[in-house]
Specification:
Length: 574
């Protein structure tokens, strides 16, 4: 079960950490965490003599000699802790790409697999009072066929401790997580279900308050009856639920109405923001708060030029300024869970989101361990973000081969888990459009179609007749479409690929054709800005996927104006 940290006592462990690559994995071979804790002899082979690296950050983006290092590598630092007897302590990681093991004061406290979701290890028994606590984190991103994502991806690895690390302090019994699920009633009032999980108590009563709405609900909690949906960390958990009716303003696209919420148990309290929104499908329409919407979207990677996959407040704000400038009300966070800060900022700005797990391309669908890994990453994503009103749908896959053995059963299990965790949001996936109906479409609530005619293949951009007939009677989006062009590369519009004029003409014709597909519920062109990819080593791309409407530095290409104008007309109802 996800450890919610909002409103808690937290100590940031961000900053300069000592760091060393460990290509022969000696740290594990000699069990270095048991004795390599401080320099007692003034030698040069102890952690405090290692070079330093910024956390959060990627070693690939910070050290030129580590540009293509996948690991393993080791981080080390000291930290302070009061270690009070009546409190509990957790190490919380926003993300570590890809596999991480942590050691506190010579003791291994936990391991985690999955490079984009948060995790926490309890260290109550390991920490001691004072500022001499030691922490090693071994991170390994060496690619393996049984990983998620698998061996080949069209984006850069960016390994390391890529998001913040904090020391979280709680009472002995505390609210581990909560879930807020609003339902719109026929009279436009709301019924809100509150589900609360308490760690360290066998029972009792939690309280949920929405002060602005006068809501003060009591939630009896009892030991978890069925832990299977919530993951392995269920020992000692109690849960409870309550439903209240209230009048509230809806959160909507372009209308970011949020309410403060407090969830308390004993001396513990979580404080957060929630929004009242309902997302459902009806026929071929996506309804937000009962009204059909057209999702004017764009896809993007979590990346910043020169910083890798580590976004600060300025980078998060900049990306939403780019999204809003394009005229979007929606964004696809591809191809993995992005930082929580993006999801919270979307909620504050009224931007809807598609969130995705990295079940990408040729996953080993026949491997039970791979399925367990995929379920773990999906569970961690949903439990992190299920209270964010900006999330409109959960995606379980991108461009997985239609005839791959075991694929349909694998992805059906992910879809079922998504609905068990959060039945209030549609399940989607991005599918390859090859003019043959994909059996996975029957499992999904919303179908994403990656459609590149006019760029890949011989079809012209406007040759999309029959698109609606290739999906069942349910909502569908164009989840990817686009053409590549380095900024400044000029050429003939119609026949010189890789020129900005070709990209501009591609979008002019493609959008005109898609506008005639009346069943279409939205689109998220590929992609907002250029991003790094080791697959793209050629004279046009030079290590980047160049399909961005902006360069990696945020400079607009001519196609940007074509999409911006199209979205402006859509918003105006034309």
């Amino acid at each position: 079960m996800h450890l919610a940290t909002c409103g808690r006592d937290r100590t940031s462990l961000d900053g300069e950490w000592h760091f060393t690559p460990d290509p022969y994995d000696q740290f594990v071979r000699i069990k270095a965490w048991e004795h390599l804790t401080e320099d007692r002899r003034g030698g040069a082979c102890t952690p405090e003599h290692w070079p330093t690296l910024a956390v959060p950050g990627s070693w690939n983006a910070q050290r030129e000699d580590c540009t293509y290092l996948e690991g393993p590598a080791v981080y080390w630092r000291r930290f302070a802790c009061e270690a009070k007897r009546d409190r509990r302590y957790f190490l919380h990681f926003g993300a570590a790409n890809h596999r991480a093991r942590a050691f506190v004061n010579g003791v291994e406290v936990g391991c985690h697999e999955g490079g984009f979701t948060p995790f926490a290890f309890e260290v109550t028994d390991e920490v001691r009072p004072g500022d001499r606590n030691t922490l090693f984190v071994r991170v390994n991103a060496v690619r393996r066929p049984e990983d998620i994502p698998t061996m080949q991806t069209d984006w850069f690895l960016f390994a390391g401790l890529t998001r913040s690390v904090t020391l979280v302090e709680t009472p002995r019994a505390f609210v581990r997580n909560f879930k807020f699920t609003p339902r719109l009633a026929p009279d436009n009032s709301w019924k809100a279900e509150f589900r609360v999980w308490v760690d360290g108590a066998e029972g009792g009563e939690a309280r949920v308050r929405l002060p602005e709405l006068g809501v003060d609900a009591r939630v009896p909690v009892a030991p978890v009856a069925d832990p299977s949906p919530w993951g392995r960390e269920f020992f000692g958990l109690a849960e409870g639920a309550a439903t209240v009716a209230c009048k509230a303003e809806a959160w909507g696209l372009g209308r970011p109405r949020l309410y403060d919420i407090e969830i308390a148990f004993g001396e513990d309290a979580l404080r957060d923001e929630v929004g009242f929104v309902e997302v459902r499908t009806e026929g071929q329409k996506i309804l937000v708060n009962g009204e059909p919407v057209f999702l004017r979207g764009v896809s993007l990677h979590e990346e910043a030029d020169g910083k890798g996959r580590t976004l600060g407040e300025a980078e998060v704000a900049e990306r939403f300024e780019w999204i809003e400038r394009l005229g979007c009300n929606f964004a696809r966070l591809a191809h993995y869970p992005h930082t929580e800060a993006m999801v919270r900022e979307a909620a504050r700005r009224g931007i809807g989101l598609w969130e995705e797990v990295p079940v990408y391309w040729k996953i080993d669908f026949s491997n039970e361990k791979v399925l367990a890994n995929a379920k773990g990453q999906l569970r961690e994503l949903v439990q992190r973000d299920w209270n964010r009103p900006s999330v409109l749908m959960w995606s379980v896959a991108n461009e997985t081969p239609r005839l791959r053995d075991g694929r349909l059963g694998f992805l059906s299990e992910l879809a079922a888990l998504s609905r068990a965790l959060d039945p209030s949001r549609p399940v989607c996936a991005a599918l390859l459009h090859n003019w043959v109906r994909d059996p996975l479409q029957e499992v999904l609530d919303v179908c994403g179609i990656n459609e590149y005619s006019g760029w890949y293949g011989a079809h012209e951009a406007e040759h999309i007749a029959g698109l609606a007939e290739s999906v069942p009677a349910k909502p569908f989006l164009i989840s990817e479409t686009g053409a590549g062009a380095p900024l400044g590369n000029s050429g003939r519009p119609k026949d010189e690929m890789w020129s900005v004029e070709y990209q501009e003409e591609f979008y002019r014709r493609k959008l005109a054709a898609l506008d005639r597909v009346k069943e279409l519920s939205g689109l998220t062109p590929w992609i907002l800005f250029d991003f790094a990819s080791p697959m793209r080593i050629n004279k046009w791309q030079n290590g980047f996927n160049r399909k961005g409407l902006l360069s990696e530095k945020g400079e607009p290409k001519p196609a940007h104006e074509v999409v911006r104008k199209f979205y402006g007309e859509k918003a105006a109802g034309k």
